[in-house]
Specification:
Elements lengths: L10 E2 L12 H13 L3 H5 L4 H10 L3 H12 L2 E12 L2 E10 L4 E8 L5 E8 L17 E8 L4 E8 L5 E7 L16 H11 L3 E5 L2 H4 L1 H7 L5 H17 L4 E11 L1 H12 L5 E5 L6 H13 L7 H18 L14 H8 L2
Length: 351
């Protein structure tokens, strides 16, 4: 059994969060997880924020079901080995490095609101923060980086320019799904920074920017019932192309769009809407619908240990039913299915 199953149970209440936090968030988070470990779910429920409670109800989930599913996969929780606090998009998140009976190390991420209520709960594979190391093929002496702003409202962006007068060909980097920073950072890995530095070393300018869902999570959460990839991805990619077109050192006839994952899937749509985009580069695009792909990926991940047990089979069946509901657009107004609304899925199904 593997932690990937828990992706189904991720909860995030971005609109409830604030930059103010309790004075000792680690102790508060440890207390909450301790209640879950001891089966005191009623007490744990009283620690939840209103938005968290509503999110659980909307998804048909309970703390008991989430924790029971975790223990079914990893065994009983043996203890918390360490805790750390991080600021993420203006929020305070507590990561509790926890060990379970089967030997797995898990980072339990607890998000607290200004009243000390639990507003988010994640279970993540434990990973060391690590330190970013630039790729060998990048030579920082051959380029410079300048700050820019993309879209309305503006989001921080970085333009990586080869040294010299130009004009240079240029690439806009478009993120995959999820709230990514401009580097698509995962742990110590920064694939978009790698691409920017590598291409600039070869004389190609690169523009990368903070994704809207990363820069403005609360605003995006409020838009969720009507949100589509137009607002999430496409408008900002087109704004980035237009920004490059106005740069004096950029060749306006040699601007390309490079998309990764969801960004790759949408790259043809971006190019069709844009004016004079020279070409597109698609990294890891999906050739099937997203619900179908999510089901396939989950089935693969659950089979990595050689078997799919009854609990995992049940979760797969639930995922299959949700994917079928999306295919038929059997989604109520305001309902969130597999992380998105009816409008979001309607838009993608029509693409």
């Amino acid at each position: 059994m593997r932690l990937m199953t828990l992706l189904i149970a991720i909860l995030w209440s971005a609109s409830a969060l604030s930059s103010q936090q309790t004075s000792d968030p680690i102790k508060l988070a440890e207390g909450f997880v301790g209640l879950l470990r001891d089966g005191k779910f009623d007490e744990a429920n009283r620690m939840l924020s209103k938005v968290m409670v509503e999110g659980l109800e909307k998804q048909g989930l309970t703390l008991r079901a989430i924790w029971t599913g975790l223990v079914a996969q990893l065994g009983e929780m043996k203890g918390i080995e360490s805790g750390r606090v991080r600021k993420e998009a203006g929020y305070t998140c507590v990561y509790l490095r926890s060990r379970f009976k089967k030997g797995d190390l898990v980072d339990i991420k607890v998000v607290l609101d200004e009243e000390g209520k639990v507003a988010g709960l994640f279970f993540l594979p434990a990973s060391e923060p690590g330190k970013y190391t630039p790729p060998d093929y990048a030579d920082p002496d051959l380029f410079v980086e300048e700050e820019r702003s993309v879209g309305q409202p503006g989001r921080p962006a970085t333009l990586t320019l080869p040294r010299g007068e130009g004009p240079f060909p240029a690439v806009v980097l478009v993120h995959g799904s999820g709230p990514h920073d401009r580097d698509e950072t995962v742990g110590a890995n920064k694939p978009f920074k790698d691409l920017a530095w590598g291409l600039a070393t070869k004389g190609i300018a690169v523009l990368r920017y903070e994704k809207r869902t990363k820069a403005y999570p609360r605003e995006m959460a409020r838009m969720a019932p009507k949100l589509t990839v137009e607002e999430e991805v496409i408008k900002d990619a087109l704004a980035a192309v237009e920004l490059l077109r106005k740069e004096g050192k950029i060749d306006p006839k040699a601007i390309f769009v490079l998309g990764h994952s969801l960004g790759a899937m949408l790259a043809p749509r971006i190019a069709a809407k844009g004016k004079g985009i020279a070409g597109i580069i698609m990294l890891a695009p999906n050739a099937r619908s997203l619900p179908e792909l999510m089901l396939e990926q989950t089935r693969y991940l659950l089979s990595l240990d050689g078997e799919i047990d009854s609990y995992e089979a049940e979760k797969l069946e639930e995922l299959k039913e949700m994917a079928e509901r999306i295919r038929k657009l059997e989604i109520k107004e305001g309902e969130i299915v597999l992380g998105a609304s009816r409008e979001y899925w309607r838009d993608l199904l029509a693409y």
